[in-house]
């Protein structure tokens, strides 16, 4: 046996020169040299090891390293001619200057030369072999790189589910045989292919595959795979590439996964075979992901824990093909490339053993909110003894690590030198408090086996602590050890001394604890309760609040995220009295009231909680108070229908409030409500009779004092129920600009009536006609004779009079009523200030003209409030009804506001809280009539580039109602139609209806559009709704399938945006970028077709993320748009680039992290070599391929493996259930101007074919759409290219802004 320092023979396998084509044994040379069995005593050997190689692994990837094709990854860089080839192997350590390895250790890993002895400068790429009850050769296979490749490739990359269909190529090889067995253990159906009858038999009889075939005997691989997978393939473990991959793509199922482990069929080709069927990645939402096992080596123990028991129990079998003798190495390796081997190919060199230490390190200093990606989990090795030069140090095995808020401060750079609070060192483990056991000790106070807790312990499995004075020995082990990170450790001490020493508490004091459910807060609260204090805490969720009260015994707790006013919340919890300003009546009023009849009481106080023992009560904070005419009557001492106000007590009336406390089962804290309340800041309402919870907060809360409250209900039921209107009738409304009158008039117009109103100023009259849409209006103060005035406006008489005034006006109306006219007596404001009401002279007309005069009070209709909301809310949201408010700010302005109402000073609904609000107006759709319906029809299936003549415009008719029998049908009027690239695919005859359904010749095209509902039998859609989804290319569409179909709730943005940024393209950009690409700040992003509907958004999302973004487009104009409008860092015209690979290298010298793929073909082929390691490609579309009879091949797919690239196709329909999440993100970006959006709009359905063909030829700039009909709501953009949308108040669009 050779001794240390002795010089011995060292046989080597040398690569002669780089190889093209199929390698031969003669491309390698076996030569013999010599080597000393001791490392040199110089710096060259620092941390190095000398090993005796026992087994060498033959692996397919080695073929790539025999070619002079430089790659970034040193593990795949070309071998050096004249030097030994290198790879994975098993060896014994002969000499070591590395602390992690000692002489005699058995190791496996990479960077081992094909020689008898190897000098390894980077032994961190070696693993100790701890399990010697299995053959050592297994560490070249099932327990080494191939085993890990199979395990992590299958379980992590493929994400398998029980029952799925799995196909494995090269299935009898070192990796394939294991993947198949793992899949069977998972309960999958497994088929493999191999290159001989013997191997096929092995797959079925030994490895337990369900089936297998010899690919060499199959003339049509597509047909072969269909035979074995009639329902398609869920998972393909790719070892072959080329024609096999092309065949598999056609047989993949939706959401299938392809783990690209290798592509051995391409390794010997000078020009790789092109992949023709890559487009299926999009339609079938396939994820194709390359991976390299080196990325998973930190998880080796996890792998061993899984696989060793299966080997020992015989549940997994493994076949090796071992060649004896290094001199036969070249033959073994060439045999692997030709498929001669059966099982794992290994070379046995000759016939003749520190721990891993996982660490959490900080990558970069953090600004803003930290992310998981700011850390990195790394694995190193450590010797389990205290180094000789570390006197007094202790080596710990960490058991529990404490997550504490102060750690965040150490993640940013700070000049603080305190070792407990200074910045972490980048690239080193973070540290903090922990519980650990002593593994070795150089300190007299600690010995091996001691349990300790303390600070300055690294976030790693093993930690050398050089300042053990920061550690405490644990003596009490009858409690959970984890408690020493909390209640028995730093947080517990913090709570104890912080409360008792710093706070100096006394029994009965009131204590508030923020972040009270945390490690410290929960203890402070309990300690305070032990002291006899009253304790309240705050936390950030209802679950935590419940925990504080039910588990930790706090007296009270609240969710701070639900509190609009922390001051009010704290006062409420502290049970303190707060001031409560009130408006009270001084004396009962006769004649016209004055402000001095009321007074502001500023001395009142109230506790912000319902008094104990008060059942069914609510305490509210009033937000808006309603000024209403009926309140005048209550200011007099009267026995009339409304009770008088109590002198010296707050006035009462309708208002909007938020609930602060409640003992009523129907109301809870935080609810918004409207109903009867006091004219004061806070009101205690016992047994509330008129109090409605506000469920719709997408409209101004003040509306619940008016259009959505008592005045709105009054107008609705007074008109529809009392007046029983018919279309075409003549309606007159007095006090028509008030809270009720303005609504009655608009409701009557929706009904198709002729409407006239009267008001008391020129300004109000103009408002009635120009804003509320009245047919006529007059100023009653300018009329000497009301009878004459009414005859002027109603020469044929009045059918309906909505009376708000009474007196002389009612007398004049009676003379002008038609037979069987109806008068709804809502109020008589002209009489409220009179000592003696005016007499009505013409009352006998009621008899002669059969008039019905009916008084009503709205409280009788409150039980039908939900019916009212169903009518009025859509009218508001769709702009069919406008509403004007006159809002006075501050409770102290209340008396003036109320008196102003009685004198007619107000314009619109008078409320107390001066701002104007108005919404959009539109007309009501008709129904039932027959109208013409222009359509764009599809002529015939297209091959090559589509032309306008492949479509034609025709006109038919349609009835504006949903036909009988279509119980869930919806009839819509199309407003905007979207031109999208995918539509060209639908113009071709589908060979696989599972992927897409082609257009039907002679029928309208279909696609995404924005429409208005004209008639509906569907419970989710009603007349007047705006919607977006799939519609026909026609003026009117009958919708019977609602996938997808969305109701448009937000109309403060252009409706056309729902064909783009707020519709399918926007969702495609959002989910494609954020979900499929998984971006990180600072990454390099490339977007093709970047000026299109999707690309322009992806680029802007990436910029918001803090990425470097480059886009390509097809004209100088578009390139300028990308840089100057959308904020791309750079952009280029791909048509001007003769070499796309070079162009991308110019813009991305360090490579591309994310490619958002819209183009395919040559562009994709150029991107692949420019991708960075672990790059992601989101395949949204491949427009360059849509017009080709035969797709271009993709030749550089091998880079997917080496660079661990993930290619994932996706279709946005899979994300439609997350539409609200998308809107929550993008709407604020639009409104705040953070995102620009450009549209290219063609006017008129007849121009639809030209618009669509123009999209395919790249004529558009921005999102291409067709305007079918004006929306009647929102800003209608008619310019060809629409610039940035500016967020304006809704009143500024389509209506005058009131001042």
TrEMBL record:
Pfam families for the chain: ADH_N_2 (PF16884), ADH_zinc_N (PF00107)
Q: Which InterPro entries match?
A: ADH-like_C (IPR013149), ADH_N_2 (IPR041694), ER (IPR020843), GroES-like_sf (IPR011032), MDR_fam (IPR045010), NAD(P)-bd_dom_sf (IPR036291)
Query: Which segments constitute the Enoyl reductase (ER) domain?
Result: 604-912
Indicate the segments annotated as coiled coil, or none if absent: none
Q: Which CDD domains match?
A: double_bond_reductase_like
Task: Please give the Gene Ontology molecular function terms for this protein.
Answer: 2-alkenal reductase [NAD(P)H] activity
Q: Does the keyword Glycoprotein apply?
A: no
Enumerate the UniProt keywords alphabetically.
Answer: Oxidoreductase
> What name is this protein filed under?
Enoyl reductase (ER) domain-containing protein
Whose protein is this, by species? Salix dunnii
């Amino acid at each position: 046996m050779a001794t240390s320092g002795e010089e011995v023979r060292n046989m080597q396998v040398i690569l002669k020169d780089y190889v093209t084509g199929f390698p031969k044994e003669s491309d390698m040379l076996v030569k013999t040299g010599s080597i000393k069995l001791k490392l040199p005593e110089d710096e060259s050997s620092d941390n190095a090891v000398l090993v005796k190689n026992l087994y060498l692994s033959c692996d397919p990837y080695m073929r790539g390293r025999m070619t002079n094709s430089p790659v970034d990854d040193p593990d795949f860089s070309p071998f050096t001619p004249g030097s030994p080839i290198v790879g994975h192997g098993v060896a014994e350590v002969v000499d070591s200057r590395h602390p992690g390895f000692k002489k005699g250790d058995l190791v496996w890993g990479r960077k081992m030369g094909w020689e008898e002895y190897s000098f390894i400068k980077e032994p961190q790429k070696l693993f100790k072999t701890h399990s010697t009850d299995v053959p050592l050769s297994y560490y070249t296979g099932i327990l080494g790189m191939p085993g890990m490749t199979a395990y992590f490739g299958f379980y992590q990359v493929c994400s398998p589910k029980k029952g799925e269909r799995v196909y494995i190529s090269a299935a009898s090889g070192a990796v394939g045989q294991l993947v198949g067995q793992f899949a069977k253990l998972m309960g999958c159906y497994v088929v493999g292919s191999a290159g001989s009858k013997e191997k096929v038999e092995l797959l079925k009889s030994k490895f337990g595959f369900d089936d297998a075939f010899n690919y060499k005997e199959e003339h049509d691989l597509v047909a072969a795979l269909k035979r074995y997978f009639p329902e398609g393939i869920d998972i393909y473990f790719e070892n072959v590439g080329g024609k096999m991959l092309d065949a598999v793509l056609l047989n993949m199922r939706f959401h299938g996964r392809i783990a690209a482990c290798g592509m051995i069929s391409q390794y010997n080709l000078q020009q790789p075979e092109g992949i023709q069927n890559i487009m299926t990645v999009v339609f079938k939402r396939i994820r194709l992901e390359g991976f390299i096992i080196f990325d998973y080596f930190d998880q080796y123990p996890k792998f061993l824990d899984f696989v060793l028991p299966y080997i020992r129990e015989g549940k997994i079998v493994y076949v090796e093909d071992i060649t004896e003798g290094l001199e036969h190495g070249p033959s073994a390796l060439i045999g692997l490339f030709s498929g001669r081997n059966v099982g794992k190919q290994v070379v046995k060199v000759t016939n003749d053993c520190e721990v891993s230490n996982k660490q959490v390190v900080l990558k970069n200093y953090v600004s803003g909110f930290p992310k998981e990606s700011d850390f990195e989990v790394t694995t190193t090795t450590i010797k389990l003894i205290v180094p000789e030069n570390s006197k007094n140090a202790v080596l710990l095995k960490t058991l529990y690590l404490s997550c504490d808020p102060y750690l965040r401060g150490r993640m940013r750079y700070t000049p603080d030198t305190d070792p407990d609070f200074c910045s972490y060192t980048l690239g080193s483990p973070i540290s903090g408090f922990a519980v650990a056991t002593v593994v070795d000790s150089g300190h007299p106070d600690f010995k091996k086996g001691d349990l300790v807790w303390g600070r300055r312990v690294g976030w790693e499995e093993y930690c050398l602590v050089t300042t053990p004075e920061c550690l405490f020995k644990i003596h009490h082990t009858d409690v959970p050890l984890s408690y020493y990170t909390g209640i028995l450790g730093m947080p517990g001490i913090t709570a104890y001394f912080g409360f008792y020493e710093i706070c100096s508490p006394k029994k009965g004091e009131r204590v508030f604890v923020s972040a009270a459910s945390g490690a410290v807060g929960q203890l402070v609260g309990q300690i305070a309760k032990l002291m006899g204090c009253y304790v309240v805490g705050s936390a950030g969720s209802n679950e935590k609040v419940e925990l504080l009260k039910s588990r930790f015994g706090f007296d009270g707790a609240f969710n701070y995220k639900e509190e609009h006013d922390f001051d009010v919340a704290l006062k409420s919890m502290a049970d303190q009295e707060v001031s409560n300003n009130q408006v009270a009546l001084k004396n009962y009023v006769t004649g016209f009231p004055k402000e001095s009849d009321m007074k502001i009481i500023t001395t009142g106080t109230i506790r912000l909680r319902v008094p104990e023992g008060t059942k069914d009560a609510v305490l509210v904070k009033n937000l808006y108070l309603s000024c209403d005419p009926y309140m005048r009557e209550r200011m007099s001492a009267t026995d009339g229908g409304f009770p008088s106000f109590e002198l010296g007590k707050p006035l009462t009336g309708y208002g909007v409030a938020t609930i602060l406390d409640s003992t009523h089962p129907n109301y809870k804290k935080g609810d918004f409500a409207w109903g009867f309340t006091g004219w004061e800041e806070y009101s205690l309402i016992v047994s509330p009779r008129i109090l409605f919870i506000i469920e719709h907060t997408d409209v101004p809360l003040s509306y619940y004092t008016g259009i959505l409250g008592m005045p709105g209900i009054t107008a609705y039921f007074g008109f529809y129920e009392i007046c029983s209107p018919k279309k075409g009738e003549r309606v007159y409304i007095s006090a028509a600009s008030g809270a009720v009158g303005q609504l009655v008039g608009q409701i009557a117009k929706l009904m198709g009536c002729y409407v006239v109103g009267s008001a008391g100023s020129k300004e109000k009259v103009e408002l009635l006609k120009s804003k509320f849409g009245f047919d006529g209006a007059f100023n009653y103060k300018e009329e000497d004779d009301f009878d004459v005035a009414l005859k002027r406006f109603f020469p044929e008489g009045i059918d309906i009079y909505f009376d708000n005034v009474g007196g002389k006006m009612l007398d004049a109306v009676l003379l002008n009523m038609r037979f069987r006219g109806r008068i709804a007596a809502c109020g008589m404001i002209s009489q409220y200030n009179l000592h003696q009401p005016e007499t009505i002279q013409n009352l006998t007309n009621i008899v002669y003209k059969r008039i019905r005069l009916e008084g009503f009070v709205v409280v009788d209709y409150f039980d039908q409030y939900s019916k009212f909301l169903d009518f009025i809310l859509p009218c508001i949201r769709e702009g069919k009804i406008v509403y004007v408010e006159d809002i006075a700010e501050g409770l102290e302005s209340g008396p003036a506001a109320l008196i102003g109402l009685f004198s007619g000073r107000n314009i619109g609904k008078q409320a107390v809280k001066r701002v104007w609000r108005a919404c959009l107006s539109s007309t009501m759709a008709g129904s039932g009539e027959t109208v013409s319906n222009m359509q764009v029809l599809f002529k015939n299936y297209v091959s090559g580039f589509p032309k306008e003549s492949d479509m034609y415009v025709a006109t038919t008719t349609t009835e504006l109602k949903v036909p009988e029998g279509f119980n869930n049908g919806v009839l819509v009027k199309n407003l905007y139609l979207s031109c999208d690239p995918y539509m060209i695919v639908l113009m071709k005859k589908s060979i696989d209806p599972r992927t897409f359904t082609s257009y039907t010749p002679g029928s309208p095209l279909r696609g995404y559009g924005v429409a208005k509902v004209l008639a509906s039998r569907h419970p989710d859609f009603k007349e007047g709704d705006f919607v977006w989804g799939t519609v026909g290319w026609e003026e009117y569409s009958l919708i019977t399938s609602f996938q997808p179909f969305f109701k448009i709730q937000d109309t403060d943005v252009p409706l056309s945006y729902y064909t783009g940024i707020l519709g399918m393209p926007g969702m495609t950009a959002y989910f494609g970028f954020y979900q499929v690409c998984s971006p990180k700040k600072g990454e390099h992003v490339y977007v093709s077709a970047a000026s299109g509907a999707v690309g322009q958004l992806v680029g802007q999302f990436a910029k918001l993320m803090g990425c470097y973004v480059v886009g390509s487009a097809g004209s100088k104009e578009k390139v300028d748009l990308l840089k100057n409008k959308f904020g791309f860092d750079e952009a280029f015209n791909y048509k001007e680039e003769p070499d796309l690979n070079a162009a991308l290298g110019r813009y991305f010298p360090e490579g591309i992290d994310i490619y958002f793929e819209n183009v395919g073909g040559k562009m994709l082929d150029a991107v692949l070599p420019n991708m960075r390691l672990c790059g992601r490609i989101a395949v949204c579309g491949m427009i360059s391929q849509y017009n080709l009879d035969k797709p271009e091949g993709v030749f550089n797919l091998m880079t997917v493996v080496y660079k661990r690239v993930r290619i994932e196709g996706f279709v946005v329909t899979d994300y439609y259930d997350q539409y609200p999440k998308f809107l929550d993100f993008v709407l604020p970006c639009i409104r705040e101007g953070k995102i620009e959006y450009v549209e290219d709009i063609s006017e008129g359905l007849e121009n639809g074919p030209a618009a669509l063909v123009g999209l395919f030829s790249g004529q558009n700039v921005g999102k291409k759409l067709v305007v079918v009909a004006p929306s009647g709501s929102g800003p209608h953009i008619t310019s060809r290219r629409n610039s940035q949308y500016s967020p304006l108040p809704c009143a500024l669009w389509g209506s005058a802004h009131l001042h």
